[in-house]
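Listing S7. Sequence submitted for prediction.
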Amino acid sequence: MHPFIALADPVQTSWEFLTKGGIFMLPLGLAALGGLTAILFKFLSLSRGRVMPDTLALKINRGAELDDIEREAHEGGSTLARLVRVAMRHRDKPPGDIILAVEASAREEASRLHAGIGVLDVVITVAPLLGLLGTASGLIAIFDGLGDSADYMAIALGIAKALNTTIFGLAIAVPCVVAHGYFTRRIEVFTARLEALLAELASACQAKQDVVTTDR
């Protein structure tokens, strides 16, 4: 078989599958596009370099000089770097004030980490419902067209076509559910690690203050 013919067969089959689904395939296609865009966006935005780069995290872990940590944070645009800059601006204040300032910024950063998750929530809910709605409308059209003499083969083919939207809706929702679980877990891990690093940084700021006070 010619390779171009072999390639055209699945493409043609997929196109026929979509066209048989009727008008409801259009909103389902939009839902699929929205879900795919959200998944790609989260893969990029939740990369380690954008949230918690290893270089800065290691410096905090190893108790590097605060000036060195601040310099590294000013050169980065990650979530950790932004939170470190907030802590550094308040490092001469009492530990309670540092923690309050960081917590306020952390809430804003948490909303950034969750950006796009809402789109996945909508797609997971809407796609199967659109699929069922398309199937229900297709079944109504089939049974409305039945006369006194029913062609059972035609009915079976019509029902098979009507189920296309349900299949497509579920095919959209399933990968979005998997991606949603993966990204939610990744956000939880990052959040816990960020809290630990910032607690270490606050302790280092307090230790620095104690040393300065003692020298005086």
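Caption to Listing S7: primary sequence and predicted structure tokens for the chain studied. DSSP finds ten helices and no strands in the chain. Residues 24-206 form one domain.
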